[in-house]
Amino acid sequence: MKICVPATSANLGPGFDTLGLAISLYNxxxxxxxxxHSVSLKGEGANNPILKDNNMFIAIFxxxxxxxxxxxxxxxxxxxxxxxxxxxxxSSSAVIVSAIASAYAIxxxxxxxxxxxxLALAYESHPDNxxxxxxxxxxxxxxxxxxxxxxxxxxxxxxxxxxxxxNRPISTQLARKALPYKYSKEDVTFNISHSSLLTAAFMSEDxxxxxxxxxxxxxxxxxxxxxxxxxxxxxxALKSGALMSTLSGSGSTLFSMAFNDDASRIEKELxxxxxxxxxLTRDFNNSGVTIEY
Length: 293
Ligand SMILES: Nc1ncnc2c1ncn2[C@@H]1O[C@H](COP(=O)(O)OP(=O)(O)O)[C@@H](O)[C@H]1O
Ligand SMILES: N[C@@H](CCOP(=O)(O)O)C(=O)O
What we know:
This protein is an alpha+beta fold. The chain is built from 11 helices and 11 strands. It has helices at 49-53, 56-68, 91-106, 113-120, 127-135, 172-177, 185-204, 210-213, 220-224, 229-239, 260-273; strands spanning 2-10, 19-34, 38-43, 74-81, 138-144, 147-153, 159-165, 244-247, 254-259, 278-282, 290-292. The strands form 2 sheets. Strands 1, 2, 3, 4, 5, 6 and 11 form a 7-stranded mixed beta sheet that branches. A 4-stranded antiparallel beta sheet has the order 8-9-7-10. β1 (2-10) and β2 form a beta hairpin. α2 runs parallel beside α3, α3 packs across α5 (127-135) and α4 runs antiparallel to α5 (127-135). The termini are close together. The model has no long low-confidence stretch (mean pLDDT 96). It binds adenosine-5'-diphosphate and ligand LJ64HWYM. Adenosine-5'-diphosphate (ADP) is lined by residues 27, 45, 50-51, 55-57, 81, 85-92, 95, 171-172, 249-250.
């Protein structure tokens, strides 16, 4: 059985805890019945002791598996991770979503994607990564009575994501604590207007509007000053023709969106200016988590 889940970029500037989209960069796990419990890791985090000794995927999988099954079985888990850890590309959401999906799949129980999303919400309270991780595409999401209410739009093939992944992580938990407790009415109004405009721009495919609509006053400046080079990355991406360039989730990745024809020039420029960071160009993902039995 094979589960594949995409990376996600949340917030998209002003849409704090609300907007997110899925990128064609994946974590994959193959699970096989086995005589003993065993784990193999390839790719991101392969040498990280946390993933070997205290793996969040295995813990969540076990929570669900023990509730769903009355059999005592052991498994071999073969992970191939392309989503970097704590870089703002939704690695924790990918783990949560794929672990829950795996526990159902290994028991042969079909799980509706809406149910999967709401189960994932118990592990990550903000819905902006888990929604695109499950559904794919661009999503606007809110939580009401422990349920995610969302609207999805498929991303067109004419656009690409260009991501700049720094060599240092930022923990989402700590980055959330770094934000102010209170905001001025001006900042709140700024974000409501820009987030609404951004959503309308995605829905109507008015891509030229993104540069203005993706501005934010609520989280980026507080987080990016911990890694001031990120301001230069953002400026370089926009100067090279990106439609928008925003801190991906809580960072440290900078996400930019561009027309296909502009993406390779933007990638080249970013690689030249920031040789110590990883720069990737990817399509968007519209299918979300996939399960192969
Ligand atoms: N492939 C993985 N396997 C197991 N746990 C993971 C994996 N990727 C991330 N995690 C867990 O998620 C944490 C990172 O979460 P977080 O700081 O929210 O980063 P991100 O911005 O990438 O979502 C890691 O410290 C680890 O506990
Ligand atoms: N809205 C959240 C998004 C966190 O995304 P991640 O990919 O950094 O986990 C936030 O901004 O805290």
